[in-house]
Amino acid sequence: MATDPLERIERMASENAVVIFSKSSCCMCHAVKRLFCGMGVNPMVYELDEDPRGKELEKALTRLLCGGSAVPIVFIGGKLVGAMDRVLASHINGSLVPLLKEAGALWL
Question: Residues in domain Glutaredoxin (predicted)?
């Protein structure tokens, strides 16, 4: 198991087509999960507040985003998409569905 939080995030993000780092009490996290589920995507969700090392992961995610909000953070095909604003912008401009198809998360 990777001990460095960034290595762990990289490993976790590469194990599934869509990965969401979330907190169970976060309304924006809930919204992004509903968006993907509504599209027929089954994301792997890591609830940072339920992980014993969640605080470490949250700090590492904040560094990845250069100080932005640590949750929700979405990876598609092992690549960082970003926070809710980036996911919604991708959805609105039409680039999210092709990204999901390329990652094997959507077959429509």
Answer: 18-81
